[in-house]
Amino acid sequence: MPPRQNLSVSAVPLNNQTANDAQHNVPAVAQAPVWQASAATAGGLQRRAPALACCFGMQLRPDRPTWETGVNRWGAVHKGLHATFVCKEIKKALRDNSCELNLSNRSLHSIPVELGQARELIKLHLDYNKFKVLPLDLGQLAKLEHLSLSRNELITLPAERWRATALKKLSLDHNRLSSLPEEIARLPHLECLDLRNNIFTHVPRVLLEARSTAAIYLEGNPLLDSEITAVQTAIADRKAKGLSVPKLSLPSISHPTPQRSYAAYSHNHYRGRGADGG
Description:
Elements: E1 10-14, H1 19-23, E2 32-38, H2 39-48, H3 50-55, E3 59-60, E4 66-69, H4 71-96, E5 100-102, E6 123-125, E7 146-148, E8 169-171, H5 182-185, E9 192-194, E10 215-217, H6 225-240, E11 247-249
């Protein structure tokens, strides 16, 4: 049995474009750390798993018989694979006139414009991605009833993108929202609005004008007790005036643990065993 060859790995900067890079039109990355392996080991990987070697961008340096794996390039390959799969799924949804599309957990920062052509969509799942703003114009999806954007990085929701008159359920929980456009609360068919675990410090009063059958969830937000009390008072005032209010679910008012007082024990006439020497 031939002796096993050890893998020698070292980090070296790739400062210019190699001949093989130029042949395959791969852009060079200045000072990008790459992994350098022995030619025998890398060659064995290429023979046994050529697809894996290709995915990691392994190239043969012309100046010495070594293979280099561009670790920094794997991020670009990974994003490219996600984008390819997303485009294929959107095209399939367009071809099949699908009513539901799930693009969750794809590390997406944006959405291909082709999604706006999926006019038969009723349910769209975009959870566990990297969106910071609403990634599409909902006015293009006239039949959309259920939109889920849970666990993203949403900071703002542009008002001009909420023209989806059919929207019934909207999940925006576990994001970074601190404000809400009035257009959301005034959606004519809204039934459920999930705003849990954001960073609201004040409840947008426009929420009190939502449909009376709508359920709005605000647990997990850093609302002060004074703000919760003010909202409860506003709800009572609207009811007293005969105005409808939605089903608003607020965080519980915190009750600080009372400090134990030992003053009362000074008036206790009971003496325990041994107090009088007995």
